[in-house]
Amino acid sequence: MPVIRLPIEPTHGWRWYRVENNRLYSPIVGRIPLPRNGVLDQVYFIPRAEHIWSTAMMIAHQKWYSFALTFGTVQGPFEDDPTMPRTGSLKSTRYQALAILASAGSIDPQHYDMPVVDGLLSEDLLLAVEREHEFVHGS
After folding, report:
1. Are 58 and 18 in contact (CB under 8 A)?
2. From CA 75, how far away is CA 13, in angstroms rounded?
3. In 3D, which of 77, 100, 75, 78 has the Cα closest to residue 90?
4. Which residues pair with 18 in a beta bridge?
5. pLDDT, tens digit, for every residue of 72-113?
C-alpha cells in the first residue's frame, strides 16, 4: 500500500465530521464534538483537497452518515497516520478550523465561530479554498 508523502510540510488541511443535530462530531473515535472555536489538539487531518474529496465521495456513496468538512491551519510536528496511508493523513499537534463546508442546511452556524459554507460540495470548491489560502503543492 503506497504512502503519500508531501514534498513540503503542510500549513493547512482538511477533516471530515459526522453531522448530528446540526453539529459536527468526530466520525471515528468517541464522537468528540468540534469545539465552537475550532481548535483541536493531537488530531488527524488530510493535507490535500483531492484526497479528502475521494474520502467524502466514498462516505456519500456508501451513505454511512451525513457529513461535513472543515478546512484549517495545522501545526507540527507531524506524525504519519498508519490507518490511512492512501490519503496522506497526518497527525498534527494543533488544528484550527477556519471554515466548515457542508450540504445545504445541515449545520447551524450559531454553534461555531467560523464561516459555514452551505451548498453543493465539489472538488473544485475544495481546490479553490486551498488556493485562496495559498496552499502550495510542492512548488
Report:
1. no
2. 10
3. 78
4. 25, 67
5. 999 989 998 888 878 888 999 999 999 999 876 678 889 999
